[in-house]
Amino acid sequence: MSLHIYPLVFEPILKERIWGGTKLKTVFDKPIQSETTGESWELSTVPGDISRIAVGEYKGKLLSELISQYPEEILGKTVHRKFGTEFPLLFKFIDAKDDLSIQVHPNDELAKKRHNSFGKTEMWYVMQADENAKIVVGFKEKSSKEKYLKNLENKTLLSILEEITVKKGDVFFLETGTIHAIGAGIVIAEIQQTSDITYRVYDWDRVDAEGKSRELHIDLALDAINYDRTDTKRTYTQEENKSNPVVICPYFTTDYLPLNGKIEIKKQHESFTVYMCMEGDFKVKYNETVWDYKKGDTVLLPAAMQEYELEGQAVLLEIYI
Predict the structure, then answer these.
(1) Active-site residue set
(2) Alpha-carbon distance 249 to 272, whole Å?
(3) Was domain 13-234 assigned CATH 2.60.120.10?
(4) Could you tell me the fold of the domain covering 244-320?
(5) Which amino acids are annotated as binding site, given as ranges?
(6) What integer pLDDT is reported at residue 173 of this predicted model?
(7) Cofactor comment in the record (predicted)?
(8) pLDDT value at position 208?
């Protein structure tokens, strides 16, 4: 039996977070149930959080089941060869009503050794930012374990970290080992390796409703942190109806695609393509069938979908391997 090929969208996996808010509903119309929803996992095969297809012939089916049945058709020849039946990326929307913890993610080698997991290289696209909203990304200047620990102990860690005021459309690429935090008042689209490994090093001394503070991972983080200064901000062109490269790394490529009208796309059968809609709405036309999408939708086009049309007025992130 062959795969019925069509664009796949998924039921959002919503995550309560101490720092979360309500913008996932007000901005994207996600079906959140609380005032502190921090994340919508749009496309995931993290164990325990595997995306379920929302519409079409495969409605209700887990993405991992479909991949194991049709690995090459979904993932593409190159991706299947490299990752087997693993879906290698995780896509999220994040609403930071309050500051996230200062944290770091391990690289592939450390994550494999400690957690039998991928590392967590990631990128952020800022979709909305309140005035003067900031992120923390890396050190202001080259540091060391000793200097870092001293500042952590004295609660002066922020004094040695790089803080950047952000605005809509800003992009940051965070290689593993980059110490970071998303600040209050920011909504981002996050693209990352399939991993949920986070080492939290400072959480602003806050406690939950029961007076408990969240677990910290100070010892685990020591060997994961890159103490050199890193350049995380990315600039990119914004030519209409064209895939403008934003991030190209060994784990994924992300292009910025401002859609105005109609374009034809032709791809080889090497990788799946994901579109995250940042603004506006758009249509995908394939084999005389048309599907409609809007801001906040994340759409997986199987690798077997090699020729299709995009039409609309929209800002898309186009992601593939």
Answers:
(1) 200
(2) 16
(3) yes
(4) Jelly Rolls (2.60.120)
(5) 105, 122, 180
(6) 98
(7) Binds 1 zinc ion per subunit.
(8) 80
